[in-house]
Amino acid sequence: MPDMKPGLTRALLMAPLLLGLAAGPVFAQAEQRAAAAAARGDLRAAQIELRNAVRQNPDLTSARIALARISIQLGDGEAAEREARAALQQGYDRVAGTALLLRAYQVSGRSDALLQAFPEPAREHSSPVERAVAGQVAAARATALLSVGEAARAGEALELARHLAPDAAETGLATASLAIAQGDRAAAEAALDRVLERDPRQVDALIRKGTLLFERGERADAVTRFDRVLAASPGHGPALLRRAEALFALNEVERARRDVDAAIAVIPGSATAHYLRALIAGRTQDWAGVDRSLQLLGPALANFRDGFLMLALAKRELGQREQAEDAARRHLARNPDDGRAARLLATIALEANRREDAAATLAEMARRGSADAASLDMLGGLHSAAGRRQDALAAFEEAARLAPGEAGPLARLAAARLAVGNVTGAIEAAEAARRIDPNVAGTQEMLAFAALYRGDLQELATLLEQIPPAARGSEGVALLGASAALMQVDLPRARAAYDEVLRNHPTSVGARLGLSRIARIEGKRPEVERLLGDILRIDPGNLDALSQMAAAAAPGAPRAAEARAVLEAANAAAPTRVPLAVTLAGVLIRAGDTARALAVLQAVPATGAAIVPLQLVRSQAHAAAGEWGPAQQAARAALAEQPSSGAARRQLAALLVQAGDARGAEVLLEQGLREQPGDAAMQQALVMVVRDARGIDAALAMADRLAGNPRALPAAAALRGDLLLAAQRPAEAAAAHAAAHAANPSAQGARRAVGALRAAGRPDEARSVLAAWAERSPDDEVSAILLAQIDTEQRRFAAAVERLEALLERRPDSAVALNNLAWLLSEHGGEGVAGRARRLAERAYFLAPTPEVADTLGWILARESHAAQAVPLLRQSVAARGAENADPGAVYRFAFALNATGAREEALSVLAPALERAPADFAERDAAARLLGELRGRR
Fold this sequence. Notes:
Blueprint: H1 6-39, H2 43-56, H3 61-73, H4 77-89, H5 94-107, H6 111-117, H7 128-147, H8 151-164, H9 169-181, H10 185-198, H11 203-215, H12 219-232, H13 237-249, H14 253-266, H15 271-283, H16 287-295, H17 307-317, H18 321-334, H19 339-351, H20 355-368, H21 373-385, H22 389-402, H23 407-419, H24 423-436, H25 443-454, H26 457-466, H27 475-487, H28 491-504, H29 509-521, H30 525-538, H31 543-552, H32 560-573, H33 578-590, H34 594-602, H35 611-624, H36 628-641, H37 646-658, H38 662-675, H39 680-694, H40 696-707, H41 719-726, H42 730-743, H43 747-759, H44 763-776, H45 781-793, H46 797-810, H47 815-828, H48 834-847, H49 851-863, H50 867-881, H51 888-900, H52 904-917, H53 925-937
Helix pairs in contact: 1-2, 2-3, 3-4, 3-5, 4-5, 5-7, 6-7, 7-8, 7-9, 8-9, 9-10, 10-11, 11-12, 11-13, 12-13, 13-14, 13-15, 14-15, 15-16, 16-17, 17-18, 17-19, 18-19, 19-20, 20-21, 21-22, 22-23, 23-24, 23-25, 24-25, 25-26, 25-27, 27-28, 27-29, 28-29, 29-30, 30-31, 30-32, 31-32, 31-33, ...
């Protein structure tokens, strides 16, 4: 080897030493820059500085430890694990290093890997360090076992951790985790408090304590815990996000926004951060911002309970209806009892003019019993708009029960009760609403409508005067005045009032319904059709108009073709409206035009709630055309869509019977009754199928088997008696019904027993059974009316009057009771009751303008010398059954009124043929004969 110069050799030997001496300050500066970056919350910059430092000097343990800690805050568990392992290999403190390593596994969610890498430690250790490390491992294993669903093993691991390191923070944190998993939040909080007593700055304990406080609603206290974390580590991502959530809940939106922005700068891939940013954008109605933030989440959106709901809200506001509906459905599938999602989905359906789908969404939730007050309130409104009054009432009743302190649902309940004629209930609800909020909309009008239904026109006038002047021009108030005139059968005044409503409110359905009633009384059928057609153009789903037009279009009706044309015109204007299409299709089927009926149905999209009614009518159309295969196919499709549909099951059973498969029909109905044993219509269908296929004895055996199921009662108890009565065996039927009623008393059972006893010629026993039931259930309106009818037939007029008076005290809205009492008073009430009889009859006709009630009111008016008012009412009564089938008594009363107005020729033309057809013993024969003689004598 050649000789070296001494000076050069010394320089070369000194170089490593000089480099080593220079390295300390260089790497110290990197760590200082990292610390400064971390102090200002810029963890990314701190991580870069530390990575550079470690890259330049892999043996710099302090930098590795700092980098592991920063990586944990950034959620980078793999980097933290790498640095912690390297630091341990370089001789770093085993207790602190192992703690970092275990935390790295936890941050990255690798519980299985942690359990594999760190086996269960021994229970005893000679070294304090080994014991401390073993305690940390046991605590980490407890948390990992919890996360993989092994709670029992987690408890064992935690017990070991408590034995090895009872005072370690990790043991306290694991204790809190297990307590939370067991639902014991108090124990969890106590464990965290013990950790913080030993180390008030323990980050994980502060974050968890703050989270528990937040979940308990103590949001300001939660913020102070997160503040402590962030004071020491300004860029701590999880703490920033937790604080942002608490600030958002406290409505400190701007502070929350700053925290979220800071968290995203630290952990840009954080799904929680982007979700919080979406929530904040939603609070400020920035729906495009909501959409952008949620789109960044990708599949992680499903991890947030309200993620799809937020997306649905944003998409709806941005006009992207299909995407909004898809997101809302996905949320509702995951959270089937979330009323917010159901209402949003219903709102989207309404905006797409799919009212039936909107109602079906909410009705399904109500059926499960999970609907909240707001959802039921919305459902009630949908039912009400569709004319489903009883369904609307049920929904509003439940909504008011769930929200007893809210005036709005009570006000709407008042309107729903009034719509079904429950005046007393409407008043109670309206007054309750006003006690909660004197200014709640509609209650004054509801009280006024209730006065109208009670026939108290003086109270009505008083209430109308109390309505603020600004509200008196409303449609509802104007309709009240017009309806009061209609109740008094003052047709010119009523017509003028309704016309005035239409001038001020051109789209008023109520005014058109009122005018159509007047036109019907006056016999102006073309005007009725025009008005109902106008209603269907305004509201194609209006059930009042649809039902009236369907009746008018029935085969054999005087103007069936014209009424059908009105329905077809309405359908052409709104071909996708389900109630209208179903009504028209039914009319066409009855008219024999099945091809046209199927074409009408084909135009309606078969989606959502529309599927079942459309398929059932389609099945009926195919069956009417003799197309049995397609008829069955449509019925099966309806049943597959809604297996609980009794109508679909019965229709398919009838088609199976027609095809000769009676056994298949039996099996189908029995399957349905296993799920819905109390379905009376399905029970009846089953015993009829059995009777027709296998005879009366087999049917009776089936009836007995059904009645043996307590869940099938009380409907099934009547099956045996009904079968016997239909088989013309009234004595046996009476015995069967009496026994069934005795075993399972019910209103239905009492009335069935009465019918059978009367058919068996035992009226006194029938009255006794009904009287006993009426005493037991005085609120049973139907039974009370039936008992009064029996009393009337047996000429117990005073008893009948007393019973009806008592019923009207409880049910002042009973149109049948009002009518029957009016008739009794007018016929048997003596002097001084004529005025009351007329008022009762007016109320009855206002509530139920049927031919029978028109007859009562018309006859009272005719005998009070108001024949001109009486004639159109009595004409309506006679025309309802047709001249040849009309009740001869009704024809006599009509002729009497005609004669009183001077229309003697018409009176003679209707009375003479009616008397020729009438039975010899009808009640008014003598009076009718005298009138006929007078009419003929004056010719």
